[in-house]
Specification:
By secondary structure, the protein is an alpha+beta fold. Helix content is 41%, strand content 12%. The chain contains eight helices and seven strands, in the order αβββαβααβαββααα. It has a seven-stranded mixed sheet with strand order 3-2-1-4-7-6-5, sandwiched between helices. It is globular and about 55 Å long. The two termini are 21 Å apart.
């Protein structure tokens, strides 16, 4: 799964991996009612992708439930099983405009969302986990309401640009990656980093922010641990299988 020489995963495998991500997100307390969305591209150009159906709790999602969508299909929202409008706006436009964003995870997890509400939402490097994201997060501070229009999805895609993480001011967080495992790992560490920073703010004491050169060196060192994402996701999936493997169906 991790090596560049391996064949791209087929749709069936991607369905299982994305379904696992939904179930694991519940365990991590990243879900919110029946909202929020995960998607993964299945075509080479990124325009055909899998995404969760409208208003289905993450804890119930199975591989067979995932919708197969085409970001260029203008009739998508007229389908009987049309996705949530905000899901289509955000994920449809990102998959259409940013082919490198193969997997897109968007949620409103507690600490990342708290960070997104601050006047200064920068993820300051105060330890090695927060430093992982030093100068590597796009920030959008132009929230205009629920993103249920295509032009808003296009604006968010432009805000993300060539970055792989978008902190959505007054909203939540969105991460992208070449694979489900890498996207899940990035979201995992982003929420942990946000938690560390929010808790540090809560002490009322002055932050001990790392110097830029140390923060940058630390961020680059994280690249050496990229394959850990696949090991982590594999083990989480194994634990999930032991508890409830119905997501594979």
């Amino acid at each position: 799964m991790a090596g560049a020489a391996m064949n791209p995963p087929v749709e069936a495998q991607l369905r299982v991996e994305l379904a696992a991500a939904f179930r694991l997100a519940v365990q991590m307390d990243w879900h919110e009612s029946v909202g929020n969305h995960f998607s993964v591209a299945v075509s080479a150009d990124g325009r055909k992708f899998l995404m969760n159906p409208r208003w289905r709790h993450f804890a119930l999602i199975k591989a067979s439930d995932l919708l197969l969508l085409d970001s260029e299909d203008e009739d998508t929202m007229s389908r009987a099983d049309a996705p949530d409008p905000s899901a289509w706006s955000i994920h449809g436009r990102i998959h259409a405009l940013l082919p490198q964003a193969r997997c897109v995870l968007h949620v409103h997890p507690p600490y990342s969302t708290v960070l997104a509400t601050l006047a200064d939402p920068q993820l300051k490097p105060i330890d090695q986990t927060t430093a992982r994201f030093f100068n590597r997060v796009a920030i959008d501070q132009h929230y205009g309401g629920i993103a249920d229009q295509l032009d808003e999805g296009e604006r968010l895609a432009r805000a993300l640009g060539d970055r792989s993480r978008l902190l959505m001011g007054n909203h939540g967080v969105l991460v992208t990656a070449p694979t489900v495992a890498e996207a899940f790992e990035d979201l995992y560490f982003f929420e942990r980093a946000a938690r560390t920073l929010v808790l540090a703010y809560g002490t009322g004491q002055r932050l001990n922010v790392l110097p830029d050169e140390i923060a940058e060196r630390t961020a680059r060192c994280w690249d050496d641990y990229r394959d850990a994402a696949f090991a982590h996701f594999r083990d989480l999936q194994r634990l999930l299988d032991e508890r409830d493997s119905s997501y594979r169906n």
